[in-house]
Amino acid sequence: MAARLIDGKALALQVRERLATESAAVLAKTGMKPGLATILVGDDPASHLYVKSKQKACDAAGIYIDDHKLPASTTQTELLALIEKENVDPRIHGILVQLPLPKHIDSKVVLEAVSPNKDADGFHPYNFGRLVEGHPVFEACTPKGVIKMIESTGVSIEGKRAVVLGRSNIVGKPLALMLLQRHATVTICHSKTKDLPAVCREAELLLVAIGKAKFVTADMVREGAIVIDVGTNKTPEGKLCGDVDFEPVSQKASWISPVPGGVGPMTIAMLLDNTVESAKRAAGML
Ligand code: NAP
User: Fold this and answer.
1) Which residue of 2, 52, 64, 186 could cross-link 33, Cys pair, CB 3.0 to 4.6 Å?
2) 264 alpha carbon – ligand 1 mean position (Å)
């Protein structure tokens, strides 16, 4: 079987177009665009690139940006003061603190300082807890994007055997919970899982987020599975590649997402989605 492609880039464009309309409706009702504060500390080139592409997408979707680029020498106290300012600014509906933060700053303390009502990344323990109890408010962007990608195939998640590879707090765990909420039967795998290929072969939905280039090979994939690849790795030649060995796996899967052009653009689109949703909530439009 040659798999059909889940085109994250095209899906993200559709989301941005919908959000542009919704942002215009928020502006018409409140006189304010949905607003996102972006906070970047230090000069990591990859982080600068990520924030720039997020801001560009915001622009296209009619979202106001309050951009903060802070030097690496910024203290934790200074950063917390800025977050507090954004927490109470009525123009701001989402706050993005770009990770990683410099080593002298405790990311956990910083992420918990973001108001749960403006937690566009969905990383605050309150929002994580809401997801665990099955009543999510802000959902983490990458797993939310993966769910939208599965839904775009038209295949129902309900009753499916889903295997999530990876158990990080930002991808694997929240993704497993989102699948469970949609009535999949979910297995979470990690580095201590025994006979991983056999577990993966049970999956009708195989969601991979481990950060190991081309780790998932065709022998680990069930015929007809939907395979979503979250991984972003560099090949020895410096090219971007996923956790899935794309060519051979696409001969067995029914649907597969590529890297690049898969989960990455959808992650950004979901950040915008969370921001606009937050603005609509604040405006009593939800
Ligand atoms: P992470 O925090 O490093 O977690 C990796 C997970 O994979 C861990 O749970 C680890 O198990 C598991 N793992 C590692 N090696 C394994 C193996 N050989 N067999 C089974 N499980 C194994 O990574 P992450 O933050 O979730 O990110 C995962 C990948 O997704 C990375 O490539 C990252 O760059 C990418 N990513 C992409 C986006 C996007 O927007 N496209 C967003 C986020 C992340 P243990 O828990 O046992 O250590």
Assistant:
1) 64
2) 14
Tell me which of 33, 118, 121, 214 is the catalytic residue: 121
CATH 3.40.50.720 fits 141-263, yes or no: yes
Domain 32-115 CATH assignment equals 3.40.50.10330: no
pLDDT digits (tens, 9 = 90+) for 186-197: 999 999 999 999
DSSP strand E in the chain: where?
4-5, 35-41, 64-70, 94-97, 161-165, 185-189, 205-208, 226-229, 233-234, 240-241, 255-256
| Residue boundaries of the structural domains of the chain | 32-115, 141-263
pLDDT value, residue 119? 98
How are strands ordered across the β-sheet holding 64-70? 64-70, 35-41, 94-97
Q: Tens digits of per-residue pLDDT, 73-113?
A: 999 999 999 999 999 999 999 999 999 999 999 999 999 99
Q: Active site includes 54?
A: yes
Burial 51-81 (b: 16+ CB within 10 A, else e): beebbebbeebbbbbeebeeeeebebeebee
Fold match flag (32-115 vs 141-263)? yes
How far, in Å, CA of 136 to CA of 126, rounded? 9
Q: How far apart are CA 190 and CA 192, in angstroms?
A: 6
Residue 121 a catalytic site member: yes
For ligand 1, what atom is nearest to the CA of residue 259? Answer: 41
1 — pLDDT class (breaks 50, 70, 90): low
Ligand 1 atom with the shortest distance to the CA of 172: 26
C-alpha 170 to ligand 1 mean position (Å) = 9
Ligand 1 atom showing the smallest separation from residue 268 Cα: 40
